[in-house]
Design brief:
This protein has about 675 residues and is mostly beta strands. The chain has no helices and 62 strands.
């Protein structure tokens, strides 16, 4: 069965042109071809050729338009390829008419003539009703455009393009005006400023007054968008032929070539000016570590841009994992001048990983730093820094506790770092030395049952690593531990303050080793175990404590023990004490009052305590001015009182019963108003 290799497609041609279609198919046996137009067989004629799948029609006519089919067939079947042929036939027309064209003296001018027509029309030009004759200065191009070279005022006038074919004709009139060329001046042509300063570029135009002029500002050949520049640029146009560009608080990125393009309907002219910005230097090139020792690093770099101000000095900086960011380091030579591209960093710490960078400075300021170098580690060396703040004390009985501030990694100078702890009792000759292998250790404990508490020792702490032993610290005196308190407090006494409060007092133990740093008071109910009770500690060496939140009319046991940083001492013998009965639960009742002027006589029914309550010993009268939080208090043993109130106020009065167990409930409130 035939298979298509190439097929025909819809085509649109002018009348009089030639159609060439080709269809190709494969098959066994080789296919033969036939053509149909509008479903009817197409036969060869004087204008129509059909050869092996090709169809050629010469001098197309309107009658040739229609639907065509190419049929490829063999004994196994036939396949079809279809396409439409459209024949265009129209009189010439112009889309715009007339056309107004403005040119400038000395410039070339092109007057176009592009009619829509089918077939292609014949074109002729005339000026002011006279046929245009081509010359060395006036040319008729193949696309029917009339081109005038080096135009002058004499070329002004009305030019008519006439297009004509067998279907009709049309004309296009182009009115040509020739104006004097525009001149643009941008000042200053070259200007140097420093970062942070401001400058004004002025663009002045000389042009034909009959033409309107517009301005476009460019930076490095790109249109300048003032909205995206953070307020640094401002356009100022005071006259129709003058435009200024103000640049405020100039940055380095504002340097470059500025252009002012003036445009009219006849001309477009560009004037340019160069702006140089002086500023701090740019970053130097990448820093390379040429050589490394235990305390030095030889560095090299390349110059960065100086931003139009010569580089005066370079500053070398370093950082390590233990430093607080980038730090300036000493160099050889010192200082590093602006014409140098290498220096040696000195007085580095051994066995520390460093990164280096370089910062350039000129007369304007200091620029951005270079990119960091690769990280390098200095060589190992014997430690040179001894531990600081060697001290001791505390610990358990018969212990000597020695502590120090660890040497930071920055000063350990190599692997295998540790401490040598040396000590001897005062008055002895030989030193005991103990190795502490952890670089992070801060404490060493030595225990000996033979020395008594608070024995003085001379102590020093040294350092070492795989390279050797470093220095020792200064010798200090450290006392052995005095241990936890050995004796309990004495003369423990307890007093009931109210139904919920007990005051406890004691005397400290006799002076000696194991001095208390504070005391812990334990208290529990008589019918309970001590373990279920509560504990409360003093904040210092106080020898009194107030226990609160207790149950009323209840017997408690209280004991006291000393404590210090080592531990707790023995507890005192328990002291027994009962809290007072609870305060009366009933409030004063039947509160009555009589007011005479500013004097108020109050009376109430006495409160009778219940069996489990404390006896009433008096009453408390609370007086408060309305709107204020503060209350005045008056105490009385009786169930009546006379109050004298200040003038001009409203007062709230209430009464509470008072007993050894505390205060009872409040009475109903009385509200009294005094006159001013």
């Amino acid at each position: 069965l035939p298979q298509w290799i190439s097929m025909i497609n819809d085509t649109q041609l002018d009348s009089g042109e030639q159609l060439h279609w080709e269809c190709r198919a494969t098959g066994k046996p080789r296919p033969t071809y036939r053509w149909l137009r509008n479903g009817e067989p197409l036969n060869s004629q004087s204008r129509v050729e059909m050869v092996n799948g090709e169809l050629i029609i010469h001098r197309l006519q309107q009658a040739d338009s229609g639907m065509y089919q190419c049929i490829a067939e063999n004994k196994y079947g036939a396949i079809y390829s279809s396409a439409e042929l459209k024949i265009l036939a129209s009189a010439p027309t112009f889309s715009t008419n007339p056309v107004r064209l403005i040119a400038t003296v000395g410039k070339d001018v092109s007057l176009e003539c592009r009619p829509r027509a089918s077939p292609k029309p014949r074109i002729s030009w005339r000026k002011n009703d006279k046929r245009v004759q081509p010359s060395r200065r006036i040319m008729l191009l193949r696309n029917n455009t009339l081109r005038i070279i080096n135009s002058s005022r004499s070329d002004e006038g009305s030019y008519v393009c006439r297009a004509e074919n067998q279907f009709g004709s049309a004309e296009l009139t182009t009115v040509l005006l020739v104006k004097e060329p525009m001149r643009v001046e941008l000042t200053p042509v070259r200007v140097e400023v420093t970062v942070g300063e401001s400058v004004v570029l002025s663009c002045k135009v000389t042009h034909d007054p009959s033409l309107d002029v517009s301005f476009l500002w460019l930076l490095n050949n790109q249109p300048l968008n003032t909205q995206q520049e953070g307020g640094h640029f401002e356009y100022i146009q005071t006259q129709s032929s003058t435009a200024d560009l103000m640049i405020r608080s100039i940055l380095l990125k504002h340097a470059g070539k500025y252009g002012c393009r003036a445009q009219t309907s006849a001309d477009s002219v560009l004037a340019e000016a160069e702006l140089l910005v002086r500023g701090p230097p740019g970053p130097p090139g990448v820093v390379i570590v040429e050589e490394i020792t235990d305390t030095t690093a030889t560095l090299s770099w390349s110059h960065g841009v100086d931003n139009h101000s010569p580089i005066t000095t370079y500053n070398v900086q370093a950082r390590s994992p233990v430093s607080l960011g980038w730090q300036t380091v000493k160099t050889d030579p010192e200082p590093v001048t602006g014409n140098m591209e290498s220096a040696m960093s000195v007085e580095l710490n051994p066995w520390v990983e460093y990164e280096f960078r370089v910062v350039a400075t000129n007369g304007i300021g200091t620029g951005d730093p270079s990119a960091p170098s690769r990280a390098v580690r200095t060589k190992e060396a014997v430690p040179s820094v001894a531990p600081a703040n060697v001290r001791g004390g505390n610990g358990r009985r018969h212990e000597l506790v020695i502590s120090w501030e660890p040497v930071s990694e920055e000063f350990q100078n190599g692997e295998g770092f540790g401490y040598i702890v040396a000590f001897r009792a005062n008055g002895t000759r030989g030193w005991k030395e103990k190795m502490v292998t952890s670089a992070d250790s801060t404490t060493y404990k030595y225990r000996d049952e033979t020395f008594p508490p608070l024995t003085p020792f001379e102590v020093r702490v040294g350092v070492y690593n795989n390279k050797g032993d470093g220095p020792f610290s200064e010798v200090v005196t450290v006392f052995s531990a005095e241990g936890e308190p050995r004796e309990p407090p004495s003369e423990v006494q307890a007093f009931a303050i109210s139904s919920s409060e007990i005051k406890v007092m004691w005397k400290p133990p006799n002076p000696g080793p194991g001095r208390p740093q504070g005391y812990e008071v334990s208290f529990w109910k008589d019918m309970e175990q001590e373990e279920t009770g509560k504990k409360k500690r003093t904040t210092g060496n106080e020898t009194t404590m107030l226990l609160t939140g207790l149950d009323g009319n209840t017997q408690y046991l209280v004991s006291v023990k000393g404590f210090n940083s080592v531990g707790q001492g023995p507890a005192s013998s328990p002291a027994k004490i009962s809290t007072k009965k609870n305060a009366p639960s009933l409030p004063p009742g039947n509160l009555m009052w009589i007011q005479e002027g500013n004097n108020v006589s109050l009376s109430w029914d006495p409160v009778k305590a219940r069996d489990n309550e404390s006896e009433v010993i008096g009453y408390k009268v609370l007086l408060r001015q309305e709107g204020r939080g503060h209350s005045q208090v008056m105490r009385t043993p009786n169930s009546a009182v006379i109050l004298t109130l200040p003038e001009g106020g409203t007062y709230i009065i209430e009464v509470r019963a008072v007993s050894e167990g505390g205060e009872g409930a409040a009475s109903a409130q009385v509200r009294v108003l005094t006159s001013s």
